[in-house]
Amino acid sequence: MTKFIMHGCNGAMGQVITRLAKEEPSVEIVAGIDIADNIDNGYPVFTNPKDCQIEADVIVDFSVAKAVDSVLDYALGRKMPLVLCTTGLSKEQLDRVEEASKQIALLRSANMSLGVNTVFKLAAIGAEVLAQAGYDIEIVEKHHNKKLDAPSGTAIAIADAMNEVLNKEYSYKLDRSQERAKRGEKEIGIQAVRGGTIVGEHEVFFCGPDEVIEIKHTAYSKGIFAKGAIEAAAYLKGKQPGLYTMSDVIG
Ligand SMILES: NC(=O)c1ccc[n+]([C@@H]2O[C@H](COP(=O)([O-])OP(=O)(O)OC[C@H]3O[C@@H](n4cnc5c(N)ncnc54)[C@H](O)[C@@H]3O)[C@@H](O)[C@H]2O)c1
Question: Rounded to two decimals, what is the model's pTM?
Answer without folding.
Answer: 0.87
